[in-house]
Design a protein that fits this description.
Layout lengths: L5 E4 L2 E5 L10 E3 L3 H9 L6 H24 L13 H16 L6 H19 L5 H37 L8 E4 L6 H12 L4 E4 L4 H7 L8 E4 L3 E3 L4 E4 L2 H10 L3 E5 L5 E2 L16 H4 E4 L2 E3 L8 E2 L5 E4 L12 E4 L6 E4 L2 E3 L29 E3 L5 E3 L11
Parallel strand pairs: 4-5, 6-9, 7-10, 9-16
Antiparallel strand pairs: 1-2, 1-18, 2-3, 7-8, 8-15, 11-14, 12-13, 16-17, 18-19
Helix pairs in contact: 1-2, 1-3, 2-4, 2-5, 3-4, 3-5, 4-5
Length: about 400
């Protein structure tokens, strides 16, 4: 069964509340852009591509409601019926701009907003454009963006796996060590949840154990590579990702282990020349000084041996009263520490001068992307990747 973190059908959007994972599966209904903004800001949904999808589809859900009202001819309850195509496009642009403020470091969100805003404006520029025509154009574009993301994730998985098998010491079979990803614990809560769900052998380590792991078990565990995602990649290859990524890259370089970034092309920001220009979001200090989780009913040292009190999520302090904390959500890994950047169009490596060359992944025209029918339901995994329902696809796009 495919794990669903986002459920979408035309006019309805639900997200798996990632703040409740791994102990409870609770879906929140996203009815509009305001719901989406709060879901993204509070990190109910994470992963740069998934953030962009939730934002885009939240506006689409609102648009579907307007279209249905227009079809019923309900002018009195829906003022948009008398709104021009141009005014409708301006409203869509305003909603998208508002959503971008929820997580400014994630370039996918801004990229999606820019593209969708352009589509709405193009539709509004037609001589016979009315409100409904602009709304329909936006809805179709947002849904197509979701479909493209599925294909992109599958391609990233295939390209990345092939590159690692060729360039790294790859053992037979798959085993994963994953970090807890303090202070928000996305690794222990989300990555681990998905690995266990998919039956992939995996071991959780704290962030501070990574260097020791590479030093003490590099050979016995046959560690092939360190693989990370990205929230923004600058034109020179500098990469912003979850805090702690930079430390992993330094350690991988020292121990001679390949360091790989996996990200769709929408994450690559050619307008940002280097990582020095990337804005780093800083989050509340309490995310460092406090921690949330359910109460434990029974404690032992066996894996998975802890029984919890369902519905007992509590927040506790783990620092001395009066502690000040610095909490950047991201750090920037310099390009010289990165061996490869895996995209849906192929793997980007450095030339003889140590410079990443993007020409091979940016030379595909939009016209070359095939048309795909919108499925009734689309699944997005907790780590931000997407997959069709079980009956439609056997891949979840992982490396």
């Amino acid at each position: 069964m495919v794990l669903q973190a986002i459920k979408y059908s035309r006019g309805r959007l639900e997200i798996l509340d990632q703040l409740r994972l791994p102990h409870a599966e609770v879906y929140n209904n996203i009815k509009n852009s305001k719901d989406a903004w709060h879901a993204i800001k509070s990190m109910q949904v994470r992963g740069a591509p998934a953030i962009a999808i939730v934002a885009a589809l939240s506006v689409a859900v609102e648009a579907v409601g307007c279209v249905e009202s227009l079809d019923r001819g309900n002018e009195q309850t829906d003022p948009s019926r008398t709104t021009s195509g141009k005014a409708t496009a301006e409203h869509i642009g305003s909603q998208l701009g508002y959503l971008v403020t929820s997580r400014p470091t994630a370039v996918n969100l801004a990229d999606a907003a820019t593209k969708l805003n352009a589509i709405a404006n193009i539709a509004a520029s037609e001589s016979d454009a009315d409100c409904q025509a602009v709304l329909e154009a936006y809805i179709a574009a947002a849904e197509q963006m979701l479909i493209d993301d599925v294909k992109d994730n599958e391609a990233i998985g295939k390209h990345g796996a092939a590159w690692i098998m060729k360039h790294a010491h790859s053992p037979k079979g798959t085993k994963v060590f994953y970090t807890e990803t303090r202070p928000y614990n996305q690794g222990s809560r989300l990555t681990g949840y998905e690995l266990i769900h998919d039956g992939i052998p995996a071991t959780l380590i704290t962030d501070s154990m990574a260097a020791a792991l590479l030093h003490m078990r590099k050979d016995t565990e046959t560690i092939a590579a360190v693989i990370v995602g990205a929230d923004r990649v600058a034109a020179n290859g500098d990469t912003a990702n979850k805090i702690g990524t930079y430390a992993l890259a330094v350690s991988a370089k020292y121990h001679g282990i390949k360091f790989v970034v996996a990200a769709p092309r929408t994450t690559i920001d050619m307008e940002t020349k280097t990582g020095a220009a990337i804005r780093i979001e800083e989050r509340p200090q309490v995310e460092v000084t406090n921690i949330r989780g359910p109460r434990i009913l029974k404690h032992d040292n066996a894996p998975g041996g802890q029984d919890i009190v369902q519905g007992s999520v509590e927040e506790v302090s783990i620092a001395a009263r009066g502690t000040r904390a610095w909490n950047p959500a991201f750090d920037v890994t310099p390009a010289e520490l990165i061996d490869a950047i895996v995209t849906e169009k192929g793997v980007v490596e450095k030339d003889e001068d140590g410079v990443f060359k993007w020409v091979n992944v940016f030379d595909v025209a939009l016209a070359d992307v095939p048309e795909v029918e919108v499925p009734k339901t689309m699944n997005v995994l907790p780590d931000g990747t997407t997959a069709l329902g079980k009956e439609s696809s056997e891949s979840d796009g992982k490396t």
